[in-house]
């Protein structure tokens, strides 16, 4: 209640100050002294417009050049090259328009500041100009939108048949990773099956689930298509891999996907950046709660041969925890036992 009263009091005080200012202005008009005051203040404001233009313009260019390497990360995927091209084309078009309009915006108050002997021109309309500044931006924006739509359609189109599948599941506050086995087909899942030992909710009554396996990090091969199948277990998350130029929301109840082709291994990127501790990563770019900051998952890009070797060394969920096979039909248990015996050979 006291906070409300204080707020009302502040509003009343501001209203009184504003009314006093208005009364003083009206008194100046009546006395005929307003023109002199307006002339002086306009000149000062006109100069300040130019100072602000030069000052902020210098800071913008200085900061953009100084921090360029921090916001323009090296590209590590095929589609990332196209994404960057579209970004810089858009920046060039909008940047040129921005500079022209804002230079004019700040120069005009200086050039056309108030003068007693100057009379404003009456220029009600110009149909030709109206058509030009409506059609030209429309055509340019249509070109940018269509180019972006084409790139986006390629990225979200069905992945190549031999793409390596990886499931990324977000939850508060981490990412879980699931791979299919040799069949490269992920098994079904059901949120009602989620337990402490089955965080993915994998449905092991589906034979395609028997060889699925988890991984503490995302391992993918260089130069081969990779399909991320993305989902969320609780709230909205967003998969973001900046070097891959990859971003896709993880939505509860609505699986999404994103496929790409990595072009640089982790070791190659470390050599390029001269940083032996560099790691690709997945971050969450959707504010999902208090632990949002901790949602990081390492991506390791390796050569195809190293990837196949790593793949052969992985153990399925059931191999790591045979208790997950309890409750399966005899036929499914037999398949699980065959798989377990083959892994021991």
UniProtKB/TrEMBL annotation:
Question: Taking every annotated instance into account, which residue ranges of this chain make up the domain Cytochrome oxidase subunit II copper A binding?
Answer: 161-313
Catalyzed reaction equations:
4 Fe(II)-[cytochrome c] + O2 + 8 H(+)(in) = 4 Fe(III)-[cytochrome c] + 2 H2O + 4 H(+)(out)
Q: Which is an annotated GO molecular function term of this record? A: cytochrome-c oxidase activity
* Keyword Metal-binding belongs to the record: yes
SUPFAM superfamilies annotated for this entry? Answer: Cupredoxins, Cytochrome c oxidase subunit II-like, transmembrane region
Q: Which GO terms describe its cellular component?
A: plasma membrane
Tell where it localizes: Cell membrane; Membrane
**Which PROSITE patterns does its entry note?**
COX2_CUA, COX2_TM
EC supergroup of this enzyme: translocase
Q: Which Pfam families match?
A: COX2, COX2_TM
Name the family the entry cites. Answer: Belongs to the cytochrome c oxidase subunit 2 family.
Q: Which PANTHER family match?
A: CYTOCHROME C OXIDASE SUBUNIT 2, CYTOCHROME C OXIDASE, SUBUNIT II
Q: What is this protein called?
A: Cytochrome c oxidase subunit 2
Q: What organism is this sequence from?
A: Algoriphagus aquaeductus
């Amino acid at each position: 209640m006291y906070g409300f009263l204080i707020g009302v009091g502040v509003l009343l005080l501001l209203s009184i100050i504003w009314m006093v200012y208005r009364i003083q202005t009206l008194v100046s008009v009546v006395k005929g002294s307003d023109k002199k005051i307006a002339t002086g203040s306009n000149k000062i404001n006109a100069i300040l417009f130019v100072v602000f233009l030069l000052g902020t313009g210098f800071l913008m260019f200085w900061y953009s050049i100084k921090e360029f390497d921090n916001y323009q990360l090296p590209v590590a995927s095929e589609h990332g090259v196209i994404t960057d091209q579209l970004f810089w084309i858009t920046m060039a078009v909008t940047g040129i328009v921005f500079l022209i309009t804002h230079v004019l915006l700040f120069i005009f108050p200086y050039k056309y500041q108030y003068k007693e002997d100057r009379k404003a021109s009456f220029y009600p309309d110009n149909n030709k100009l109206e058509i030009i500044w409506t059609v030209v931006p429309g055509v340019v924006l249509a070109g940018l939108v269509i180019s972006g739509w084409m790139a986006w359609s390629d990225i979200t189109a069905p992945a190549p048949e031999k793409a390596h599948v990886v499931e990324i599941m977000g939850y508060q506050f981490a990412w879980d990773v699931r791979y299919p086995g040799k069949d490269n087909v992920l098994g079904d899942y059901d949120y009602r099956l989620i337990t402490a030992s089955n965080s993915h909710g994998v449905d092991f009554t589906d034979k395609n689930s028997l060889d699925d396996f988890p991984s503490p990090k995302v391992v993918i091969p260089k130069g081969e298509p990779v399909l991320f199948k993305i989902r969320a277990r609780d709230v909205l998350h967003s998969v973001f891999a900046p070097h891959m130029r990859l971003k896709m929301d993880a939505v509860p109840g609505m699986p999404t996907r994103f496929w790409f082709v990595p072009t640089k291994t982790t070791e190659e990127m470390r050599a390029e950046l001269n940083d032996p501790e560099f790691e690709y990563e997945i971050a969450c770019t959707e504010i999902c709660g208090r632990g949002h900051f901790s949602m990081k998952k390492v991506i390791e890009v390796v050569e195809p041969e190293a990837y196949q070797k790593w793949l052969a060394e992985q153990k399925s969920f059931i191999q790591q925890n045979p208790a997950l096979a309890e409750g399966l039909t005899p036929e499914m248990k037999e398949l699980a036992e065959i798989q377990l015996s083959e892994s021991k050979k």
